[in-house]
C-alpha cells in the first residue's frame, strides 16, 4: 500500500487516483498524522502531495525527518518536494521565482529513475511561489526550468525522489509515466491491484460481518447505491432486500430500469414503493426551491422508514431471531476523506449518502465502496455485470425533477419535462457526448411563457433550458461548448415533440456563480 500524505488543496485525491490507475493500492492520510503512525501502517512507499502553503509561512505543515530515514521510498511533489529539500538540508528560496500553469521542463539527467524514457524537453504543470535552488547532499539534480535550477532531484541509494511540478495533473504530459517510474523502479512495487480484488475482498468481509442476519439497502437509481447493492447481493444473496422509493420525480425510464434491468442483472429482492401521489400532494402549491427540497427530503424519509419497518416485521415473522441488522450505503472514498474519515483529515463537510436517510437509524452500516473513487466504482459495477445505462449514469439529484421545474411541481409539468429531458439525453447519447459532459440538467421554466409561432398560429408556451456542464467533481463547473448541430437537433425535436414548449435556451453560466441545478 502507498500512503499519500495530504498537504491540502485537493491534490492528494488526484494523486491517490493516479497511483491506483498504476494498479497500486493507495490511501490518503493527513499531514498532521505522526510519522510513527504512518510508518506503522507499513507502506511500500510514501508520496508527499502539493499544498497551498509556502515552507516559509508561519504554521506551514512540517514533516519529521524520521520519515526520510526509515528506508521507505518517498516521492515529494511540489510542496512535498520543497519540504523534502528543506528538511534534508537543501535550499528553498522565496525569491519570486514563481511559475503557474504549463511550463517547459528540461530533463538534465538522461536515464534518471523518474525520467527514464521520457523526452529531454517536456511540458509540466507548475504551481509554486518558492523554488529550490540547491538540492540536499547526496541528491542528483535531474531537471530544471528557465527560472528554477532544481526542478527535480533524486537519491537512488536512499530511494528519495522529488519533482517541483504536479505529475498527477493531466497537463504534465509524462506525469503518469514519472509516477509509475517512482512506483515500479524507485520503490520496486508490483502493479497488481485491481477492482477485481476489491470484489473478492469485500464479499468475504461482508459475509463475515453479516453472518446469518439480514441487510437492507435504499436504491436511488444512481451508480453508487446500485453498485453497493450489487456487491452486497453477490456476498449474501437473499439476505439482502433493496427498497426503491418511486417519488414520481424520476426521469423517463429510470424507475423501469431499476425494476427490470437492475433486478435482472443482480437477482436482488426489490421492494418498490409507489409514492408518486403522496409526493405530488405534498408538493402542491409550493414554488420555493428550499421548501420543495425540504418536503421531498421529509417525505422520502417517511416512506423509506415505513418500508423498512415492513421489511423488518416480515423478516422477524419469517426468521424469528434473525432480524434486519444492517444498512448498505454507497459511501465513496472522497466522502470518507472529506468527512474526516477517522484519519484526522479536516472535516470539510459531512455527507449523507442515500438521499438523506435519517440519522437515528438503528442499523450497523455496510459500506463496501468506502475505499473507492467514482471511476473505480463504475469498474466494479461493470465487473458485477450491471447494465451500462446504470454504471455510466451521470449524476442526478436526489430530489429529481422536482428541482428542475422552476415553479410549482405538477404531474402535467413533470410529464412535459420528462419528455424534453428524454429527447436531450437521447441526442447527447447519439452524438457520443455522454462521457464528455458531466451532466446536462434540462429545466422547465414553468412560470415563464413567451410568444412563438408554430404552423400558422401564435403560441404562448414555456421555455426549456439546457444546462450542459463539464466538471471534475461538481464543486466547480464550466458550461460545455456543445456542437451547434447537436444543440439544433435537440431544440428542433423538443419544440416539435413536446406540447406547450415553444423555445429552447442554453445556459452559458459557469459554477460559480451559477450552481449546476437551477434550484
Ligand atoms: P449544484 O446545483 O449544487 O449541484 O451545483 C452539484 C451536484 O450535486 C447534485 N445535486 C444533488 N444531489 N441531492 C443529490 O443527491 C441533492 O439534493 C442535490 N442537489 C444537487 C447536482 O446534480 C450536481 O451534480
Automatic annotation (TrEMBL):
Domain GMPS ATP-PPase span(s) in chain numbering: 193-393
Gene Ontology cellular component annotations, sorted alphabetically: cytosol
EC number: 6.3.5.2
UniProt cross-references to PROSITE patterns, sorted A to Z: GATASE_TYPE_1, GMPS_ATP_PPASE
SUPFAM superfamilies: Adenine nucleotide alpha hydrolases-like (SSF52402), Class I glutamine amidotransferase-like (SSF52317), GMP synthetase C-terminal dimerisation domain (SSF54810)
Pfam families: GATase (PF00117), GMP_synt_C (PF00958), NAD_synthase (PF02540)
Keyword set, alphabetical order: ATP-binding, Glutamine amidotransferase, GMP biosynthesis, Ligase, Nucleotide-binding, Purine biosynthesis
Description of how the protein assembles with itself and partners: Homodimer.
Protein name from the UniProt record: GMP synthase [glutamine-hydrolyzing]
Organism this protein belongs to: Streptomyces marianii
